[in-house]
Amino acid sequence: MNPTKGGLAIFSANSNPACIELARRIAERLGVELGKAQVYQEANRETRVQIQESVRGKDVFIIQTISKDVNTTVMELLIMVYACKTSCAHSIIGVVPYFPYSKQCKMRKRGSIVSKLLASMMCKAGLTHLITMDLHQKEIQGFFNIPVDNLRASPFLLQYIQEEIPDYRNAVIVAKSPSSAKRAQSFAERLRLGIAVIHGEAQDAESDQVDGRHSPPSVKNMAAIHPSLEIPLLIPKEKPPITVVGDVGVSERLALIILDDIIDDVDSFLAAADTLKERGAYKIYVMATHGILSSDGPRLIEESAIDEVVVTNTIPHEIQKLQCPKIKTVDISMILSEAIRRIHNGESMSYLFRNIGMDD
C-alpha cells in the first residue's frame, strides 16, 4: 500500500471480517487507506504478523475487536504492537473498543487480577496510548502507565432510544441490579424518564467454604491464639426474592429499557424480563455497549420475553444476529475515528467527554 498521508497509519489486527469492516469504516471517515498487514495462524497455531509497509516515524493506530477466541486476538494485538515498535513507529495507539478480561479486575480469593497483567503486557509490547470504550470498571485505567481514553457509547444508545423506540417518553429505565443503578440513573436523567431497580436477582455465588478460609485452626495451634481474642464472624449473605423498586406497570404502552455495559450470560436479563412482564411491562428492550452473547444466548433471547436487544459493534456478533433477529447493532465508528483524528493532530480529547460526569 502507498504510505498513508500525514504520517498516519491504520491497521486491522486480525482477519476477522467484523474487525476489518470497523477498521475500514474508520479509515474512510479519516480519508486514509487501511494499512496492509498479514495476520494469520500457522499450522502449529502460532500467530504470525507481517507489516507490509513502512511505519517508520508514523502514528500507528491498531484496531482490534475481540472475537470468540479471546487469547488469540490478544496475541495478535501484542505481536502487531511489537512489530510496529521494532519497525520504528513514532507512536503506537491501540484501539480496543472492548477491553478483554475486564471482568477479572478485582482480586477474588486466590485468583489474580488478569486485567492488570494484560495492561502490563500491552505496555511492555510497546503500546504508547490506548483507546477503549465503556470499561467494565473505570479503575482499570490505573493499571496502565500510558494514557487511556475510555470513550462512552451512551450518546449513540441515547440517540437510538429517541429515534427508534416509539413513544419512548412512556418508558422506564431499569437497572437489572443495584450495581448498575448509576448507569441507569444517568440515562433516566438525560431522557427525563423514571427509573426502577431490580433487587435480589440470581448471582454467581462465591462460596468461601471450598477454599479453606473457614477451616478451623488445628488443635495444636489453639494455644497460640490469645484467649481474649475473639474475631467476630461476618454474617453470610442471603439473597432476597426478586423485587422491583419503582413503578413499572402504570401503562399498557410502557416500555422497559434494561441497561448494562456487557451482555454475555443472558440468564440475569431473562429473569429480569420475566419479572417485569409479570408486573405489567408491555415491551422490553435490553441495551448494552458490548454484546458478547456467548453460548446459547441468542437462542434464549429469541425465545424470551425480551422484544429487542441493542448493542454496539465493539464486538463482532454477526453470527449471533443470524441466530436471533431481535439483536440490533449501533455503529460507534464515528467516535473512534474522531478520537484517532484528535490524537494524531495533537488536539484536546475533552470534546468527546463533554457532559460526562464522574458517575457516567
TrEMBL record:
Ribose-phosphate pyrophosphokinase N-terminal domain segment(s): 9-126
GO function term, MF aspect, one: ATP binding
InterPro entries, alphabetized: Pribosyltran_N, PRTase-like, PRTase_dom, Rib-P_diPkinase
Phosphoprotein in keyword set: yes
GO cellular component terms, semicolon-separated: cytoplasm; ribose phosphate diphosphokinase complex
Keywords: Acetylation, Nucleotide biosynthesis, Phosphoprotein
CDD domains: PRTases_typeI
Any matching Pfam family: Pribosyltran_N
Gene Ontology BP, a term: 5-phosphoribose 1-diphosphate biosynthetic process
Coiled coil recorded as keyword: no
Family label: Belongs to the ribose-phosphate pyrophosphokinase family.
Assembly and interaction partners: Binds to PRPS1 and PRPS2.
Biological role stated in the UniProt entry: Seems to play a negative regulatory role in 5-phosphoribose 1-diphosphate synthesis.
Protein name: Phosphoribosyl pyrophosphate synthase-associated protein 2
